[in-house]
Here is the input.
Amino acid sequence: MENGNKKSKKRVFWIFIIVSLIIGFIIYGTMKDQFGLKFLVFFSGVPFLLFITGAFGLLWPKIKPEGDEVYISHALIIGLLFIVLFFIHVWVLLPLLCPRFAECLAM
Here is the structure.
């Protein structure tokens, strides 16, 4: 019974990642010109959240802490994962939407 539950949880996390990619492709690829720039910048957090949730959920069984002494290393690994994905989002994806990001927020 436990094995089936693990597979369904894994499936949900993969669905989060796939949905985030689909949203990203549809909103930021094909329909980019139909939305305002401010909406695109702020809405970019939705696929980012879905992707982070999926990535974290898939990695959790591999990096979950086993005892009290490993909580610090676990927190550092999770923090590093989040900051790398966040920097990719802010420094790679958002500049593709708006090359002069500060001006986009002032609009």
